[in-house]
Amino acid sequence: MALLGLAGCSTTDTLDLPQMQLDNTVTGSVPPMRPAISVDKNITGPDVMYASLTDGGFNVPAVPWQKVKPQFRRQIVVDKTGEAPGTIVVHLQERMLYLVQPGGDAIRYGVGIGKDGFRWSGRANIQYGREWPVWTPPPEMIQRKPELVKWQGGQPGGLTNPLGARALYIYQNGKDTG
Predict the structure, then answer these.
(1) Which of 27, 42, 96, 127 is most deeply buried (CB count within 10 A of its CB)?
(2) How confident is the model at residue 171, as a pLDDT?
C-alpha cells in the first residue's frame, strides 16, 4: 500500500481530441476513445501530480516521476473488471489496482504486492481507512527481523512508516486479513 500512495500521485499527458479532429461519437457498446486524464481535471501533468506537498503535518518530497514506468502511473482507463462503481480490484499478476468509476471507466494505479507466502487474495470489504497510520509488526515478523522489536508497540505514522500516508483495512467474513 505504501507504493499505492506514490502511484496515486500521477497521471499521463492529456490529449486534445477536438484539435486532433477525432470522432468521439459513441457507437453501440464500444465506448468513445478517451484520453488519459488526471482525476482532478485541473491537474494534468506529472510534474504537478508528483510535486512535493505538505500532508498531515508531514513534508512529502517530490517523486522523481520520470523513474516511474508510464504504465504504473495513475491514469483513467476503460474499466475491464465488470465490477460495480466504487469497487477496488487488484490484479496481482499485472501489479495493478483498479478503482471502478461510474460510466465505464476505472482509475488504474500500479501497486506493490506481497512476497510469495505473504499475499492475500479473495473478495473482501474495506472496513475503514487511516491517514498516516500507526504500523505494528506482527510477532511472526519480529521473529524473522528482530530489529523490529522496537516497533512492537507501534511505529507512528510518518515518511518512514511502511504503511505510507494512507492504509485501507480489509476484512473477510468479519476478520481482518492483515
Answers:
(1) 96
(2) 93
Q: What does pTM read for this prediction?
A: 0.68
The position carrying cell 523490529 is 148
- Residue 37 CB-density burial (10 A; 0-12 exposed, 13-18 middle, 19+ buried): middle
Among 5, 38, 14, which residue's Cα sits nearest to residue 157?
A: 5
Could you tell me the mean pLDDT of each successive run of 10 residues in the chain, 178 residues long? Answer: 39 34 35 47 72 94 90 89 94 92 92 79 91 94 96 96 92 88
Cα distance between residue 99 and residue 88, in whole Å: 5
